Amino acid sequence: MQAMLYLFATKFLAKDQLKDIKEEISMMVLGQMLVDDGIQRGMQKGVTLFATLTKKMLQDGRVEELGRAAEDNEIREQLCKEYGLLETDIDRL
């Protein structure tokens, strides 16, 4: 249902019209549901990404670095790049 409403809005409304109603939609129940769905998907992708990184690092015996990656975003991002785990690739995991 949500996808259909989004599809209709993007298909039949101009960008300036979408901007005009953006705040109104965000205050509605449907808007909140869409935001909640997006947050849930983002969390699932983050968990999948870190699980994949963890598996690869454990296979390589990099346990100490894994501990640091769990606590430091910058290290985690560097390791994800090193292992080829880019945000654009998360959907394939």
Provide an overview of this structure.
The chain has 93 residues and is an all-alpha fold. Helices cover 80% and strands 0% of the residues. It has helices at residues 2-12, 15-27, 29-59, 63-71, 73-82. Helix 4 (63-71) crosses helix 5 (73-82). It is elongated. The mean pLDDT is 83.
Proportion of strand residues? under 5%
Molecular shape: elongated
What oligomerization state is this entry in? single chain
Terminal CA distance: 26 Å
The description of the largest β-sheet is: none
Notable features of this structure?
5 helices; 93 residues; mainly alpha
How does the SSE layout of this entry go?
Layout: H1 2-12, H2 15-27, H3 29-59, H4 63-71, H5 73-82
Task: Give a nutshell description of this structure.
The chain is mainly alpha-helical. It has helices at residues 2-12, 15-27, 29-59, 63-71, 73-82. The longest helix has 31 residues, at 29-59.
